[in-house]
Amino acid sequence: MFTSVDDVSARLAEAGYLASRAVATTVFLADRLGKPLLVEGPAGVGKTELAKAVAEVAGARLVRLQCYEGVDESRALYEWNHAKQLLRISAGRDETWDEARTDIFSEEFLLTRPLLTAIRGDDPKVLLIDETDKADVEVEGLLLEVLSDFQVTVPELGTITATRRPFVVLTSNASRELSEALRRRCLFLHIGFPEEELERRIVRLKVPGLDETLARSVVRVVGTLRAMDLRKEPSVAETVDWAHTLLALGAESLDETVVRATLGVLLKHQDDVLKASAKLDLDAL
Amino acid sequence: MTTQAGVAERLTSLVGALRAHGVRIGTGETVDAARAVGELGLADRELLREGIAATLLHGPAQRQVFDAVFDLYFPRGVGGPEQPAAGREELRDRLADALAADDRAMLGRLAIEAVDGFGGYGSSPESDGWSSYQALERLRPQTLMARVRDTVRGQGGATGFTDRLLEDEIRRRIDAFRALVAAEARRRVAERRGRDEIARRAVAPTADRLDFLFAGQDRLAELRRTVQPLARKLATRLAARRRRAARGAIDLRRTLRGSLSTGGVPMKPVLRARRPARPELVLLCDVSGSVSGFSDFTMLLVQALHDQFSKVRVFAFVNRIDEVTGLLEHGRADPEGLGARIQAEAAVTGYHGSSDYGMALGEFAERYADAAGSRTTVFVLGDARTNRSDPNLPALRQIAERARRVHWLNPEQRSRWGTGDSVAPAYAELVEMHECRNARQLSALVARLLPV
Ligand SMILES: Nc1ncnc2c1ncn2[C@@H]1O[C@H](COP(=O)(O)OP(=O)(O)O)[C@@H](O)[C@H]1O
Ligand SMILES: [Mg+2]
Fold first, then answer.
1. CB contact under 8 A, A223 and B169
2. Average pLDDT of the residues in A208-216
């Protein structure tokens, strides 16, 4: 898929994703070693975006399994279309049960869900298993099975094996520790908050109308906030939002009034707003 | 950098060193790491670092240990810098410029020169020879603050609002430089004494395996920063345990009622939703100097978990006991200052400054008898070193009889219990006592012992 680490960086950049060296290296290796990539890090640092960008540059279809509490096999793997099966049974009144059964447990009545979709067909795919930490622990067993052999057994249909393995990205906000077994299957990538220079480039890319000097100040303020030991540090997503806000307000540079008025875009807890205001001297008039 | 065969050997030693630090690495990962090296080549050391980390590590907590060990087995270079060592003032000048420009590459080179020029001591080849402490003591980068700030201002790099960010930024750059100097000194020592030994001894353990009793201030601060994420993880685990406990029982009546639509065949068992009252928690914490790091951390963790309980009360003692629940609630915004605030605002010491468990337990049983009732789980935190005063076993027995459960978490290693002035074995006969030496053990215990 890629010829070198630099090739990864260059092509992801064309797709609107600016990769750090660590990100580019790990994506390159995941492709070369054919291993799933587990991306862990705080919310809003571009984990989901990375998977989308990889799909785009690879000319692959993005198949996404969004995890949540209670997601199960029938949502992740496949389920039978009961309603349609019932219709089929009541339509064919005079056939034997055996005939009906072979028919209703066929392709036509199968609802494929992301994990199964991702291993069928010959077109290139990126399988994004997003926010894996939100799923219950039992689902990890299922993921492990699929990611080990890239095959799925549907008792009524037999075993389906991938003819072309997808590029797999799992993301996690680390709200709970994923199992050791699942981690071992994957290459591990931690995405933290970017270095100042990279974040400045992200802001410039996402908010092109923003003045260069202002973009620089924006990133510096965010960097200082992150060093304050807040309950929730502002992430890249917040930096970008803040930049959009400042642009919309027509601010040409930062001053106390505009920072005080827009701090809520960056900080979500009142405690944090108070603490940051004090440390940034926003109340001193 | 090195030949291919040399690399395989280095990789194996690197894996060995990581394992010695408790990082669990299987053969599969080692093979992957070797393949990664093959794919990435040896030309770019930072690529190699990221690639090997991605294959060997499974979580962010191991990264600090990894970086230090990687620097030893895949060093930046061998020997000293190319240029001869510069004088102290000249080096400070260049350091000031690099700090002002935030030039990372230059800071890296200066760290090497700093260790080379000012970190060496002793003259025999057997001596250790390199000290980051000494290099930093001579160079005193922290005293460059005003100068760097003025330089940046002079260049117009900090006008208007952002000027107020400048000092914090420079402070962070200086901290980063200090870390670079430390890494370089480790590398030089390793060159002399053999990597394997340094990798074993001189690389600090991950924060969660850090011994509470031996951690310095900076590492304790690092540890405190893990409180919130740790609390979040524990809260999810407790919620899961609670859900499991709440499932269980089948509600027969509702199951049968539900089965009317299926002709009386009970298809879907209806589970009784139990809504157990959330439990109450009481913490008794020794906050004397020797164990305060442990107590502070645990208090912050419990505070962060407070919405898991109907009630949390926290008491601190050295030789007198006082309630500090309120201090802790206000302390959320400023965890660093917690210890100092407790010492300043709570009555935890009487005539002398050393721990007296007997007094403290007695006072608790007497003054706060109502705090620990049949719904309360009590945690006692401390090393049970009571300076040879009366352990007051009846007081602890009385607390144990009234409370639902009492657990004692002892930050000392089990083999030391009962040595010297430790009365741990006597207390352990009355209540369950657990060894709890680091954050990893603590979170495992909390997940297991906390009532749900
Ligand atoms: N490296 C990056 N390059 C481009 N945009 C980024 C990058 N990192 C973060 N972003 C921005 O941050 C936003 C949030 O990213 P997202 O992938 O949703 O975060 P996560 O999945 O980690 O919570 C994206 O919409 C994007 O604008
Ligand atoms: Mg996401």
1. yes
2. 94
Q: How far apart are CA B68 and CA B62, in angstroms?
A: 10
B118 closest CA partner among B75, B77, B87, B76? B87
Helices B227-246 + B439-449 axis angle, to 10: 20
* Percent residues over pLDDT 90 in chain A: 77
- In A12-166 the beta strands, taken as DSSP E runs, fall at 37-40, 61-66, 78-80, 110-112, 125-130, 151-154, 158-161
Q: What is the DSSP letter of B307?
A: G
pLDDT in tens, B265-313: 555 655 555 555 667 889 999 988 778 788 888 888 888 888 778 888 9
Nearest to B55 by CA among A200, A33, A282, A89: A33
Q: Which residue has better confidence, B210 or B43?
A: B43
Query: Are the beta carbons of A40 and B60 separated by less than 8 Å?
Result: yes
The vertex-A113 CA angle with A108 and A117, nearest 5°, equals 80
Instruction: Quote the DSSP letter at residue B342.
Output: H
Token code pair at residue A29: 């290796």
Which protein residues touch ligand 1 with a CB less than 6 Å away? A 17-18, 43-49, 171, 202, 206, 236-237, 240
Closest ligand, as measured to the CA of A129: 2
A221 touches chain B (CB under 8 A): yes
Cα–Cα distance measured from residue B212 to residue B435, given in angstroms and rounded to the nearest whole number: 12
User: Strand, helix or coil at A81?
Assistant: coil
Domains of chain B: 4-73 (no CATH), 88-194 (no CATH), 227-245+277-449 (3.40.50.410), 248-275 (no CATH)
CATH topology of domain A5-73+114-190: Rossmann fold (3.40.50)
Asked whether the beta carbons of A235 and A44 are under 8 A apart, the reply is: yes
Residues 6+ apart with CB under 8 A from B262: none
Dmax of chain A from CA atoms?
87
- The residue of chain A with its CA nearest to that of B31 is A33
Model's pTM, two decimal places? Answer: 0.69
Query: Chain B within 8 Å of A262 (Cβ-Cβ)?
Result: no
CA of A202 to the centre of ligand 1 (A): 9
Which of B28, B162, B225 faces A254 most closely, judged by CB atoms?
A: B162
Q: What six digits make up the tokens of B309?
A: 């309980």
Is the CB of A253 less than 8 angstroms away from the CB of B161? yes
Locate A131 and state its tokens: 């926010």
Name which of B162, B225, B236 is nearest A220 (Cβ-Cβ). B162
Place of tokens 């900080």: A267
The encoded tokens of residue A110 equal 């199968």
- CB–CB contacts below 8 A, A to B: 103
Secondary structure E strands in B253-362: 280-286, 311-317, 321-323
How far apart are alpha carbons B6 and B1 in whole angstroms?
10
Residue B271: helix, strand or coil by DSSP? Answer: strand
Q: Which of B358, B365, B359, B347 is nearest to B406 (CA)?
A: B365
Distance CA B301, CA B313 (A): 13
- Inter-chain touch A217–B36, beta carbons under 8 Å: no
Tokens of A223: 């960097």
Residue A223 contacts B, CB cutoff 8 Å: yes
Determine which helix (DSSP H) or strand (DSSP E) holds A139, and give its type and residue range.
helix A137-149
